[in-house]
């Protein structure tokens, strides 16, 4: 803490005070802005809830993608899962997939293209999800 205080040209007590302020909850009714005429809650935007239809469609799509992936080789499955974040929502680059699978980026690209080509030819059930 003394290093932080030194870099910021403050004393350690001031740093502790600032850290305590950061931990205290703030009321959504707090007035903010230059003129203090806006409540904090007005600045926070609501995330619209997905409709039941959208939720069901997404669930069916996940199931259909999972079924389609089972028709690929294990390596093709892994490449697509990692590239498109199908398990954790985190899409990886070619380099990241190559490193994780201990293969070249060129090989990852080839496997990905092969798998996608197969899915395009054989998986008509996924076409209904594509919006034009």
CATH class of the largest domain equals Mainly Alpha
Say what the CATH topology of the largest domain is: Arc Repressor Mutant, subunit A
Strand percentage lies at under 5%
Distance between the termini: 56 Å
Low-confidence stretches: none
| Overall pLDDT | 80
Number of helices, where a helix is a run of at least 4 consecutive DSSP H or I residues: 7
Give the topology string: H per helix, E per strand: HHEEHHHHH
Q: Percentage of helical residues?
A: 55-70%
Domain module tally: 2
CATH architectural arrangement of the largest domain:
Orthogonal Bundle
Using only C-alpha atoms, the radius of gyration works out to: 25 Å
Which secondary-structure class do the elements indicate? mainly alpha
Tally of DSSP β-strands: 2
**CATH level-four homologous superfamily name of the largest domain:** Winged helix-like DNA-binding domain superfamily/Winged helix DNA-binding domain
The major β-sheet equals: 2 strands, antiparallel
How does the overall form come out from the CA principal axes?
Answer: elongated
Q: Order of strands across the widest beta sheet? A: 1-2
């Amino acid at each position: 803490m003394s290093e932080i205080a030194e870099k910021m040209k403050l004393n350690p007590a001031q740093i502790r005070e600032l850290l305590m302020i950061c931990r205290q909850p703030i009321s959504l009714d707090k007035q903010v802005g230059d003129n203090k005429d806006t409540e904090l809650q007005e600045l926070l935007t609501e995330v619209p809830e997905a409709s039941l239809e959208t939720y069901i469609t997404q669930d069916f799509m996940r199931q259909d993608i999972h079924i389609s992936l089972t028709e690929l080789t294990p390596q093709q499955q892994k490449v697509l899962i990692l590239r498109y974040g199908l398990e954790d929502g985190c899409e990886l680059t070619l380099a990241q997939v190559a490193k994780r699978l201990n293969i070249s980026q060129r090989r990852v690209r080839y496997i990905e293209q092969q798998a996608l080509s197969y899915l395009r030819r054989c998986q008509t059930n996924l076409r209904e999800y594509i919006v034009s």
